[in-house]
# Entry
Amino acid sequence: MDEMEGRWEDELDCAITVCDAEGTVVYQNGKSREVNGDVRGKSLMPCHNDRSRSIIRRLLAEGGRNVYTIEKKGVRKLIYQTAWRETGAVRGLVEYSMELPAELPHYIRN
# Structure
């Protein structure tokens, strides 16, 4: 777990949490530890409800992604959860959690 600490990811202004194929947290950057506490080495499952556990199990089994927004304590966030793979096999999940500004521009580019 510690081999990934101290890299650029640790100072990003978004939370990154990585779990393995069993749902055990193997990495958190600084923002993730600040927001969620240090949960490295612990399972994701106990801190999620039944619906969320079902989504986590599906993503770990099939891959894919789960993307949504939340509002917590008046702060809007984008949650982007995606499977990570090695040689095509799902090895776990990565979750990015990013605070969204109140006014978010949207551009259409061709």
